[in-house]
Amino acid sequence: MIEGRDVIRAKREVLLEASPQPAMPSVITGVEDNMFWVSLPKEGNQVLVLQEGQKIKIGVSLSRGFYQSETTVLALGKNKDQFYGLAIPKEFSESQEGRFVRARHATNVLFKAGSLTAQTALVNFSAGGVMVYLVPQLTKILQSGHKITLTLNIDNLSFEQEVKLSWQKQYANIPFAGFEFVNISPQLQGVLAALSIKYTEGKL
User: Fold this and answer.
1) What pTM value is reported for the model?
2) Which parts of the sequence belong to the PilZ domain (predicted)?
3) Domain of 29: which CATH number?
């Protein structure tokens, strides 16, 4: 659990969800005593339509994992930068996606499956897997049905590891994919856990 006021900060990206509408990204643009303002939540041509008094879910990706809470629409704004005023949640709880500390780290990742290869950029990593940009070559690998391995170099640690697709999502029209390590050795998982903590020290 994390205090809501520690999470709600200006310029932080959040994900808002009001079922049955799809979750959409937004940005916190201002924080007041008991509420905060977000920009117009949209994805492509779709926007998230909310009503005053409506309860919605809010998610935020922090260095230590993905956290979620529930909030209420307190006010409807008059411009796209202050579109909805939402209640500051009392606390955020870690979702099941975030069992491991996630660290942001810029490097390239090489995926292989059969005779296919794809190079993309790492978004973040943990002892449980990686999040990367979903490039067209990687989509072909996913469609091939072959066993997938990745090669990654973090802080002079170079390793090759079998992975499986965990999820695919789009944030602000940019496709991402999450991969889970398959049969990873306890030794390698321990080293990655230590590295993820190293890269997130002092960060929320």
Assistant:
1) 0.54
2) 99-195
3) 2.30.110.10
